[in-house]
Amino acid sequence: MPDEIWKAAEDAVVSGDVATLERIVGDYGRLLGEQPARSWWNNTLAPSYDAGDARAIIARTHHFETFADFVAFTQIVEGTPSGVARFEAAVDAIVGGDLATLRRSLLEDPDLVSARSIRVHRSTLLHYVGANGIEGFRQRTPPNAVAIAGLLLDSGAEVDAVADMYRGSTTLALVATSLHPKRAGLQQALIQLLLDRGATIDHPATGGGRSLVHACLANGRPEAAQYLVSRGAALDFESAAALDRLDVVRRYFAPAGEPSVTATQMEAALVSASFNDAAAVVEFLLDRGVDVDARAGGFSGVNAASDLRPYRHPSPVSGTRSAARDQKRVRGHIARWRTVARSTLPKTETTSR
What we know:
Blueprint: H1 3-15, H2 18-34, H3 54-61, H4 67-78, H5 83-96, H6 99-108, H7 145-154, H8 171-177, H9 179-183, H10 187-196, H11 212-218, H12 222-230, H13 237-242, H14 246-250, H15 263-275, H16 279-287, E1 295-296, E2 299-300, H17 301-305, H18 323-332
Helix pairs in contact: 1-2, 3-4, 4-5, 5-6, 6-7, 7-10, 8-10, 11-12, 15-16
């Protein structure tokens, strides 16, 4: 499908132009659903056209439960001056890197810093620095993101405020698991700022019961995970395995007797370690009898070691080779292991990370 059609559809989604989007969906609906969506948001994201209904697509992209909610929102923003309109303008300044406008807005309306979006994620302004779980077209990390976060915190932003995306997220959790701060080269600096300002590494209202280090690894952010550990984050068995922390992994194995982790935990650790090229831990676990065909999250280390694409070959490698040969192949290809599985770790970012 021509780029101009994709661009017109995307513009219609962002602007809420139902008539234009209905016409495009009517003419190109099958292609919109079947072809990988193209986008000009410059952040790897794009609208999802799966709903097939223009109003539903617009509402979902703007993070409203219904199109009626979106219409009510636009009427507020476009009507008489309001707190909602000022909040939205401040968000635009944040994602656009307009520090001067943001500072002026906060001076004119100090309550903005503690206000909440009326979108379903209920974010504060600080959450938008996380570039994660918010509107896709706003998921950007400008070059001055650290200064913007600092201004918000200096203005009274609550560093541990919890928004509703991903069953609960602090700004730290969003920043640490997002792709955009990483690509901008600002992830560690933002994490450092938030921690220095008192952010809780493993906030009890976030993570769905798993640690932030786990979430970082699940979303392909091992550098963020390593930095969090350096700042005092606790390491559990599977996270230690993924980060090749053999010193920590060894603690779960007594010199004699049963290990203090279950077979399921060891299998999950093997897959996590293989995904992250944790060679020392993989060797250690295999030497202690963890099944080379161990599966976690639907995949095994053998899939990766055999240069299979797990999403093309959902079945584990088995039958045609002996376990000994599988182990040799696994050990010999540790440096090249890459798998789309993240073990059993919960994914924190589905829209951006």
